[in-house]
């Protein structure tokens, strides 16, 4: 009966009390409140919204539905709302670790156009993201960084609720997204949280206003829970870097960690920006000093060293990864039909082609093709001539659709006669 009263109250647009939210989430987690009542509440929240205090209570109740970790060393994590070619965590987390901040990072397998960070890491033969929380903590403390998947012990309420939201049209709600993302990040126990809220065609927040609102909610919720937090709203209209897929993104991350390709310097700078905020907040130092430290730790190989140590601790073998990258695949090259300047590369179109090649999964449990994906040959602003390579499609599956997909990929590129201004990767800082 209490569930029905709470539903009435939210339907009428009133704020729920802390105890009401806690009891509802507890009841749902234990199976005492059925899916249909939880769906009704989720829909009422979508339509009526929640105050900051209600969102904080929702987050807290979801966090407390499972285990919460604690640390006796400085800790920070970065969370991204996800985008096309978004391999930044593979660089940022070891970079922050190299600066003396432990990074316990529970991450997800992807659902959608490309794999999640866990899928990318698991293209390294032997790397296992499935660790007990005890082993996860041990690796984060001894190596400085661990990237693993969330176990069932963390936020079981979110696991149930997210699956329900997915099928009831209730994903697009800032309080529900905040509760979902933040409950998991708070349960990890890191002292500092830095959010990368992506905005544009290749992500679910399409406009700067939507992205800003989510960023502010995540930062506010983290602070309400006693953590240090900040967010950057970043551009996701075009893919990040050249590689969109899984193994190719790991290879590109290794290139960035090795400072091997000046054409990736813009992505390296973005990684430095995030890692610097993690280090500055957690160590209480000026961002400029943290930026300088991160730049040095990337340049001198310390960040790469942390990445390699993390891979080893998770059972991964980078020599076998090199062999995997060299294994035979079906490839198709897309060439430019005109000369000019690359004015736009539509992230969503690129991601759809990568998905069709096998880089993503439609439903949980589907197998990802580790070598499938798109590798761009050009970036925003490049000058190209007729016949110049624009991208390569790659897959290990039957190549019967490659030509059609190549035609789709070509539509992602806009080429103009006039030179174009550089792309701004960071749209706004939400401090
Ligand atoms: N990612 C999550 O973990 N939860 C959401 O609700 C949306 C994105």
Compact description:
The chain is an alpha/beta fold and 431 residues long. It is 46% helix and 16% strand.
Query: CA-to-CA gap between the ends?
Result: 42 Å
Mean pLDDT: 96
Low-confidence stretches: none
Calculate Rg over CA atoms: 22 Å
CATH-defined topology of the largest domain: Pyrimidine Nucleoside Phosphorylase, Chain A, domain 2
Helix content: 40-55%
CATH architecture of the largest domain: 3-Layer(aba) Sandwich
Number of domains: 3
Structural overview:
This protein is α/β, with parallel strands linked by helices and 431 residues long. It folds into 3 domains: 2-49, Transferase, Pyrimidine Nucleoside Phosphorylase, Chain C (Transferase, Pyrimidine Nucleoside Phosphorylase, Chain A, domain 3, Up-down Bundle); 76-155 and 172-177 and 184-320, Nucleoside phosphorylase/phosphoribosyltransferase catalytic domain (Pyrimidine Nucleoside Phosphorylase, Chain A, domain 2); 327-416, Pyrimidine nucleoside phosphorylase-like, C-terminal domain (Aldehyde Oxidoreductase, domain 3, Alpha-Beta Complex). It contains 17 helices and 13 strands. Strands 1-4-5-13 form a 4-stranded mixed β-sheet, with helices on both faces. A 4-stranded antiparallel β-sheet has the order 6-9-11-7. The protein has a 3-stranded antiparallel β-sheet with strand order 10-8-12. Helix 10 (208-224) links the parallel strand 4 (192-199) and strand 5 (228-235). Helix 4 (52-63) crosses helix 10 (208-224), helix 5 (89-98) crosses helix 12 and helix 5 packs across helix 14. The protein starts with a helix and ends with a strand. The model has no long low-confidence stretch (mean pLDDT 96). It binds uracil (URA). Uracil binds next to helix 9.
């Amino acid at each position: 009966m209490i569930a029905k009263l709470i539903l009435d109250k939210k339907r009428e647009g009133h704020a729920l009390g802390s105890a009401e939210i806690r009891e509802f989430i507890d009841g749902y987690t234990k199976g005492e409140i059925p899916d249909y009542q939880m769906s009704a509440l989720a829909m009422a929240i979508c339509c009526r919204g929640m105050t900051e205090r209600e969102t904080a209570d929702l987050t807290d109740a979801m966090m407390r539905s499972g285990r919460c970790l604690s640390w006796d060393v400085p800790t920070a994590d970065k969370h991204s709302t996800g985008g096309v070619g978004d391999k930044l965590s593979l660089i940022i987390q070891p970079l922050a670790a190299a600066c003396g901040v432990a990074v316990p990072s529970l991450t997800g397998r992807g659902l959608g156009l490309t794999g999640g960070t866990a899928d990318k890491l698991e293209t390294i033969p032997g790397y296992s993201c499935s660790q007990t929380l005890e082993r996860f903590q041990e690796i984060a403390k001894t190596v400085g960084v661990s990237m693993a998947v969330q176990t069932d012990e963390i936020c079981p309420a979110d696991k149930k609720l997210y699956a329900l939201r997915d099928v009831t049209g209730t994903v697009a709600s800032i309080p529900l997204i905040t509760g979902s993302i933040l409950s998991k990040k708070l349960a990890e126990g890191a002292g500092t949280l830095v959010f990368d809220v992506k905005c544009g065609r290749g992500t679910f927040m399409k406009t700067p206003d939507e992205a800003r609102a989510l960023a502010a909610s995540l930062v506010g919720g983290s602070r309400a829970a006693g953590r240090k937090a900040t967010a950057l709203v970043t551009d996701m209209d075009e893919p990040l870097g050249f590689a969109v897929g899984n193994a190719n993104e790991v290879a590109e991350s290794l290139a960035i960690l090795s400072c091997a390709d000046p054409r990736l310097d813009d992505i390296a700078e973005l990684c430095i920006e995030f890692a610097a905020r993690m280090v500055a907040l957690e160590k209480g130092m000026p961002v400029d000093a943290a930026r300088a430290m991160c730049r040095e730790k990337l340049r001198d190989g310390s960040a790469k060293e942390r990445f390699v140590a993390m891979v080893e601790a998770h059972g991964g073998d980078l020599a076998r990864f090199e062999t995997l990258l060299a294994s035979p695949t079906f490839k198709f090259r897309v060439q430019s039909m005109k000369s000019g300047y690359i004015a736009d590369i539509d992230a969503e179109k690129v991601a759809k082609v990568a998905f069709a090649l096998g880089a993503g999964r439609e439903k949980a449990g589907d197998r990802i093709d580790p070598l499938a994906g798109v590798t761009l040959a050009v970036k925003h602003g490049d000058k190209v001539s007729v016949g110049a390579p624009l991208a390569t499609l790659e897959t290990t599956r039957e190549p019967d659709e490659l030509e059609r997909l190549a035609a789709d990929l070509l539509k992602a590129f806009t080429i103009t006669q006039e030179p174009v201004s550089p792309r701004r990767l960071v749209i706004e800082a939400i401090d």
